[in-house]
Design a protein that fits this description.
Length: 616
C-alpha cells in the first residue's frame, strides 16, 4: 500500500502539469519555447519556385492610393503570363463589387490566362465563433468558374501565426484554403479539383502531397526564415510596361524582369506588404519586420513542395512517455540524496532541451519540452517534500523508540544518521550487560505488592539512568532483570569499557539506595551483573505487528548466563565479565581471573573474570 501511495504522487503531478498546460498562459510559454528552436536553427534554403509580387512601400509611394483599380490587376495578370508565370495566386480579396467594367475585365483576363487563383474569406461572429459567414470572390469571377481559396490564418492566443488552415466546413460544404487550392492546380488548372482532395489518416491528400494535420484542420508551418526570406518584387515594377505613362513609373521595368526570367515557370503570389494594409503578423522568427500574410502562404507552399513538414508526436504516445517519465523521475529523485538530485534534475532539463533541438533539426518534430522541464521541476519539489516528510517521520520514530531508554546524545546521533538502524537486523559487535536481583522471588513473598512495586520502580529508574548516562541502551526489563546493550544502534569503539563502567556505577548506585532504604526502615537486596562482548544480530526484530529493537544470538545468551554465576563464585562486587570483554578493557580495569567455567549450552569452558574497578 505504501508503494501504491508513492506511485500516486508522480501520477498526480503528471495530471497537474497536463491541466496547467491547458491554460493559455502556460500554453503560450510552451509556444515561445518552441519558437526559440526556429531561431536557433536559423533559416532554411528556399527554392526559386515561389516569387512574391508585393504591394510594398515603393508601390505605395508610386500610386498613393489603395486598393488599386481592378483593371491594373488585369494588366498584372497579362504581364505575368507574358513573363511565363506558371501560377498566379492573389492574396487580395475581391469580395465586393467595384464597377461592372473593371470587375469583368479582371475576370475575363483571369479566365483567358487560365492559371489564376483568387481569395475568399470567412467572417466569424465576434460573440459566437461557431457562427460563420463565407465571403466569396465577386460574381464576375464566379461566373467564369475561376478557382479560389480562403485566406484565413489561425492566430494563437499570443497573436502569433504558427499553423495553416487547410479547410473550413460550413454546413455540408467544405471550403479549402488558398494554399490547398494552389497545390491542387499546380499541375493542371481545373475547376473541378475539389473531389481530388481527400482526408486519409489525419493527412490531407492533394496533388500527390500528403500534408500532416497537427490538430483539427490545421497544419503546422515550418517557417523557412524571417520576413523577406522569399524573393519580393514590387508590384509597381511588374505593371510598369509600355502602356504606363505616369511620371516616375514610365521606366518599362517589366521588360527587364521578363528578360531576366524573374517569373518564368514560377508560382507568383500577389499580396500587400505595406504597413497600411495591416496584413502583417508575428511568427516564430521574431524580428522588427513582421511577416506579411502573403509570405505565410509562401512558407506553406514551400514546405509542401520540399516535403519538410513539421510534426507533433502522437499525443497518446507522448502522454504514455510523459507518464512513464514522471514515475521514473520521481522514484529516481526520491532515491537520490538532495545534493545529487539538484544536478541530476538540471542535467535532465538540459537533456530535454538538447533532445528537442535534435528532433526538430533532424526530424522536424516539435515536442513540448517546456512541459517536460516543468514536470521535472514539480517532481523534484515533490520528491523533496516526500523525503523531508520521510526524514521527519524517521526522526519521530527514532525519538519515540529510543528516548525512553537511550542517551539523548545517542538519539540525536541516530537522527543525524538513521542508516544506523537497519530494519530486520544486522550483524554487529556489541557488549551486552545483564543485571538481576538476588532472591527477588523470596523478597516479593515477604513484602506487600505495593511496597515491592515501589522499591522496584525506584531501583530500575536508578539503574536505567546509569545505563543511559554511560551511552548504553536499555533493551528490556524482564521482571527484576535488566538487559542493556552497548555499541548499538550507534557504533562505539569503547562499548566494552562503557558496559564495565556502568556495572561499577550500578553497584555504587545500589549502595546509595541500600543506605537510603535502611534509613527508611525498608529491606534492601543485592544484585548480580554479567557482561559479555561479541557479535550478535541487532535490529528491529519481531513480527510484522509487534517488533522491538533488540539483539539475539550466542553472545546475548552467554551474557544472560554469566549473571547467574555470581551465585557460584564468591565475587567482591558480584560482577563477572568474559575473556572477550576483558581483552578489550584489560588496560583500563582492575580484574581477577576466576575460572574456566563450564556454562550450559557451551561445548568449551568459558574464561571468566570478576570486575573490581577502573584503573586511575
Amino acid at each position: 500500500m505504501n508503494h501504491f501511495r508513492r506511485l500516486l504522487i508522480p501520477v498526480a503531478v503528471f495530471i497537474l502539469i497536463r491541466f496547467l498546460f491547458q491554460l493559455h498562459l502556460l500554453e503560450n510559454l510552451e509556444h515561445k519555447a518552441q519558437d526559440m528552436l526556429f531561431r536557433i536553427r536559423g533559416s532554411l534554403p528556399v527554392t526559386d519556385s515561389v516569387v512574391i509580387v508585393a504591394i510594398d512601400d515603393e508601390t505605395y509611394q508610386d500610386y498613393r492610393a489603395l486598393p488599386f483599380p481592378r483593371e491594373i490587376h488585369a494588366r498584372l495578370i497579362r504581364n505575368l503570363n507574358l513573363a511565363g508565370a506558371r501560377q498566379i495566386i492573389f492574396d487580395l480579396e475581391f469580395t465586393e463589387v467595384s464597377s461592372p467594367y473593371a470587375d469583368s475585365v479582371l475576370a475575363e483576363t483571369a479566365a483567358l490566362a487560365g492559371n489564376v487563383i483568387f481569395a475568399g474569406k470567412f467572417l466569424t461572429h465576434p460573440q459566437n465563433p461557431d457562427q460563420k459567414q463565407i465571403l466569396t470572390p465577386i460574381h464576375s469571377i464566379f461566373n467564369q468558374h475561376l478557382n479560389w481559396g480562403t485566406v484565413n490564418v489561425p492566430m494563437d492566443w499570443d497573436g502569433y501565426i504558427r499553423e495553416y488552415s487547410l479547410y473550413e466546413n460550413l454546413g455540408r460544404e467544405r471550403y479549402y484554403s488558398l494554399g490547398v487550392a494552389a497545390l491542387a492546380n499546380s499541375r493542371v488548372y481545373r475547376s473541378d479539383w475539389k473531389p481530388g482532395v481527400s482526408l486519409v489518416n489525419r493527412q490531407l491528400k492533394v496533388a500527390g502531397h500528403s500534408i500532416p494535420i497537427a490538430r483539427d484542420r490545421f497544419a503546422l508551418i515550418n517557417y523557412f526564415g524571417p520576413a523577406g526570406t522569399f524573393k519580393h518584387i514590387p508590384y509597381s515594377q511588374v505593371i510598369d510596361d509600355s502602356s504606363v505613362t505616369m511620371a516616375g513609373l514610365d521606366l518599362d521595368a517589366f521588360y527587364g524582369l521578363a528578360a531576366a526570367g524573374a517569373f518564368r515557370g514560377k508560382t507568383v503570389l500577389i499580396g500587400a506588404t505595406v504597413e497600411e494594409e495591416h496584413d502583417k503578423f508575428d511568427t516564430p522568427f521574431l524580428s522588427s519586420n513582421r511577416t506579411s500574410g502573403v509570405e505565410i502562404h509562401a512558407n506553406f507552399l514551400e514546405m509542401v513542395r520540399q516535403r519538410k513538414y513539421l510534426y507533433r508526436p502522437n499525443p497518446w504516445l507522448f502522454l504514455l512517455i510523459e507518464l512513464s517519465l514522471a514515475i521514473g523521475l520521481f522514484f529516481l529523485l526520491s532515491w537520490l540524496r538532495p545534493q545529487w538530485s539538484i544536478p541530476v534534475a538540471l542535467a535532465l532539463v538540459i537533456l530535454f532541451f538538447l533532445t528537442a533541438l535534435f528532433l526538430f533539426f533532424h526530424f522536424y518534430l516539435l515536442i513540448a519540452y517546456l512541459e517536460l522541464v516543468l514536470l521535472t521541476a514539480f517532481l523534484y519539489v515533490a520528491a523533496l517534500v516526500v523525503n523531508y516528510l520521510k526524514a521527519q517521520k524517521e526522526k519521530k520514530f527514532i525519538k519515540n523508540a529510543f528516548q525512553q531508554y537511550l542517551a539523548p546524545e545517542l538519539v540525536e546521533e541516530l537522527i543525524r544518521h538513521p542508516q544506523s538502524l537497519k530494519y530486520g537486523g544486522s550483524m554487529q559487535e556489541i557488549t551486552v550487560l545483564f543485571s538481576d536481583i538476588r532472591s527477588f522471588t523470596a523478597y516479593a513473598d515477604k513484602h506487600k505488592p505495593e511496597e515491592t512495586v515501589l522499591i522496584l520502580k525506584e531501583y530500575l529508574t536508578a539503574m536505567a539512568d546509569t545505563i543511559i548516562r554511560n551511552s548504553g541502551i536499555v533493551d528490556k526489563f524482564v521482571g527484576d532483570e535488566i538487559m542493556a546493550l552497548y555499541g548499538t544502534p550507534v557504533p562505539h569503539k569503547d562499548h566494552a569499557l562503557q558496559a564495565c563502567k556502568t556495572a561499577l556505577e550500578m553497584r555504587s548506585e545500589l549502595s546509595r539506595l541500600q543506605e537510603k532504604w535502611k534509613q527508611q526502615g525498608r529491606d534492601g537486596f543485592d544484585i548480580g551483573i554479567g557482561i559479555n562482548t561479541g557479535v550478535a544480530v541487532v535490529g528491529n526484530l519481531g513480527s510484522e505487528q509487534i517488533f522491538d529493537y533488540t539483539a539475539i544470538g550466542d553472545t546475548v545468551n552467554l551474557g544472560a548466563r554469566l549473571e547467574g554465576l555470581n551465585k557460584e563464585y564468591d565475587t567482591a562486587l558480584r560482577i563477572i565479565i568474559t575473556q572477550s570483554t576483558y581483552d578489550q578493557v584489560k588496560d583500563k580495569i582492575k580484574a581477577n581471573f576466576l575460572a574456566d567455567a563450564n556454562i550450559r549450552g557451551k561445548d568449551q569452558p568459558v574464561t571468566i573474570y570478576e570486575l573490581l574497578g577502573l584503573k586511575t
